[in-house]
Amino acid sequence: MDVRERNCDGPATELIFGDWYPAARTDTLRVGKITTSLLLGVPLLLGRKNDGKIFAMKDLCPHRGIPLSAGWFDGETVMCKYHGWRFEPCGGQCREIPSLTQIDTLDASKIYATSYPCEERDGYAWVYLPAAGSGRVSGELPDVPELPKFSEKFRSAHLVAELPCNVDHGIIGLMDPAHGPFVHQAWWWRSRASIHEKVKNFEPIPEGFRMSAHAPSGNSAPYKLLGVYGEPITTTIDFVLPNRRYETIRCGAKWFSSLTTVTPITPSTCRIDVIAAWNVFYHVPFVTSIATFFGARFVGQDQQTMIEQAQGLRYNPGLMLIDDADKPAKWYFALKQAKLKGTGEHPLSGPVTLHWRS
After folding, report:
1. Rounded to whole angstroms, how far apart are CA atoms 224 and 226?
2. pTM for the predicted model, two decimal places
3. Domains of the chain (ranges, CATH numbers)
């Protein structure tokens, strides 16, 4: 058993640019208003134009570096507070420099503030952050992440929590299959007494891996509720770089799906976002409020654990990853390094079966 394949704390965490990250809930983006966010250490200015399109800019004026959020947005252009420079926010093109005179030869339209592709999906503003020094984004971009849905009518909810750890710790915690009976022990989920051996099959997918369709754990109360429909229940879980965990539960025509992301805010902090949709118990009154309440409790347990882990990590302990329960974490690190370096094979050459107790 390899318990020392790598120190999963390691040196300063490298961040993956050149991909989409959730920056803000779109219900906070109102026409003519601006809000700020921080992704991968990049300060962002976000808003919604008069035509309804959302945008994301680097929250820095290219003239003197003052945050553009200190200025004004009239629904069409962002004006810098310092010298009144105006920028079209979707492309970043400068539209006006008030200090220019008739004898100036500077063409303001050739000046650009940094703007980023920004798309609205599932109530989130997804922002594409290119690699540093790559200039303005051009060419074909990867698809914007979206929560899978399997019927026209469904309910949905979202949760968010900030974590005082780097994105690597957040992600390997997200995919950790063995912590459930301890971190999430509760009458409505599972208990330590319910621990038993699990056998799951995994397979490679592009930039990630899949826990193949399987019957869900019998020691989790929410899954047992689906038994009222009298149909076979299957669960599929995908992890896809840089930070996405998709879970789909099917029970005949009934379904539940979730997309959980762990997004780096800075190299040492991150944020977990969960968006879920379902048509299970669709007509039950207050089902969304009930699901949100228990979901918040569940995510809060993870958040509290990460807060406590951060206290120990301050002392730079040596860390270990074991087989088989930590194998998904090893795959994640291998996938991440291959993406950062642009070289390397997928850590899964084919289907793999893992065993653990939880």
Report:
1. 5
2. 0.88
3. 19-129 (2.102.10.10), 155-357 (3.90.380.10)
